[in-house]
Write a structure and sequence with these properties.
about 170 residues, mainly alpha, Methane Monooxygenase Hydroxylase, Chain G, domain 1, 2 strands, about 60% helix
């Protein structure tokens, strides 16, 4: 596959799984280079080696670890209210850790691997925790005079931007 075609397909949601082999969601099929051979399969028909290429064991483990840590913090938030500055710090760290993992994940991963894979489960957990933190963290930001005149985007707008849809 030509380098230019691979670059264009990558921008359209395709992921490289081996030299000159890409995988992508069905809705990205129209972006495929006409010189490419396409094979279409349903999620359940994806070979194990493709799944391993899209979601290496260390990536799966990292999503599981972040989900566990997010669940621990969510449990602590249910037990006691959080200080607004602590909520802001937790929100920043949460988004940093989430982005660090997502940026390592090939773009075709979620579409190919489905909702039961650890990355999607982690996304749901992180989105819920983010929703729990945003009110208190925005409260701290709203008290800062140096930020006067700047408004904090709504929680639903921020969640949609970061997680694809609003949780809960």
């Amino acid at each position: 596959i030509r380098e230019r075609a691979m670059l264009q397909m990558g921008k359209s949601g395709w992921s490289v799984i081996a030299p000159n082999a890409l995988v992508g969601p069905l809705d990205a099929q129209s972006a495929a280079d006409p010189a490419c051979l396409l094979a279409v399969a349903k999620t359940g028909d994806i070979p194990a080696w493709v799944i391993d290429a899209l979601a290496p064991a260390e990536t799966v483990a990292a999503f599981g670890e972040l989900r566990s840590e997010a669940n621990l913090l969510a449990s602590a938030l249910q037990a006691a209210p959080i200080d607004p500055l602590d909520a802001l710090a937790a929100r920043i760290v949460l988004i940093h850790e989430w982005r660090r993992l997502v940026l390592r994940q090939p773009s075709a991963g979620i579409a190919i691997l489905g909702k039961n894979w650890p990355g999607e489960q982690c996304r749901t957990t992180v989105a819920g925790l983010y929703h729990s933190l945003i009110g208190a963290s925005a409260q701290w930001l709203d008290t800062r005079p140096e930020l006067s005149g700047h408004s904090t985007p709504s929680a639903s707008a921020l969640e949609t931007e970061r997680f694809g849809h609003r949780s809960g």
